[in-house]
Amino acid sequence: xxxxxxxxxxxxxxxxxxxxxxxxxxxxxxxxxxxxxxxxxxxxxxxxxxxxxxxxxxxxxxxxxxxxxxxxxxxxxxxxxxxxxxxxxxxxxxxxxxxxxxxxxxxxxxxxx
Amino acid sequence: xxxxxxxxxxxxxxxxxxxxxxxxxxxxxxxxxxxxxxxxxxxxxxxxxxxxxxxxxxxxxxxxxxxxxxxxxxxxxxxxxxxxxxxxxxxxxxxxxxxxxxxxxxxxxx
Lengths: 113, 110
Hints:
The complex is a heterodimer.
Chain A: E1 4-7, E2 10-13, E3 19-25, E4 31-37, E5 43-51, E6 54-57, E7 64-66, E8 76-78, E9 87-94, E10 103-104, E11 108-112
Parallel strand pairs in A: 2-11
Antiparallel strand pairs in A: 1-3, 3-8, 4-5, 4-9, 5-6, 7-8, 9-10, 9-11
Chain B: E1 4-7, E2 10-14, E3 19-25, E4 32-37, E5 43-49, E6 55-58, E7 61-66, E8 71-76, E9 85-92, E10 98-100, E11 104-109
Parallel strand pairs in B: 2-11
Antiparallel strand pairs in B: 1-3, 3-8, 4-5, 4-9, 6-7, 7-8, 9-10, 9-11
């Protein structure tokens, strides 16, 4: 079964802690993306990666970090520098070049206590 | 900076009625995407419109693209309750990332 998996589905964090959200795909896609969605809002791009070992900041990268050591994996770390991290986080992937669409994972809902 | 707007942001309609959702974007692009999101769920790809004048239909939904007007429409025909969801349009900015509109929350009432 090809697809994108995200874990965990729900995550609770205390203030001041770093947490890492997992995103894995077995679609053999070159590009991967992280978005943040706040209640009733659209998606905002955090980071994206077009190829292994390379990534670019999106519109709201401050307080987040990523790595792309493997083609199939693109973990997102929410650091303590992110002042308001409670949100729904969506990972997506697409083929390289100019893709026909992005495929989204099921999402991780992060709540800061 | 590319901006994507949707109109309306909220739409409540009765079953059996027709309606259109509009998506405007601010810079030239020849590619536009429509997605559906159910509450608490991820996004599902509905349509990819690749050129000016492109029209695609799936069931009660039909999407079109006018690149000269920088406008896409998502037309709903004879709405049913199962179409209740949030619909997003997105524009391919530079072949590397997508910019999403704010979404249109559709409620279809019996």
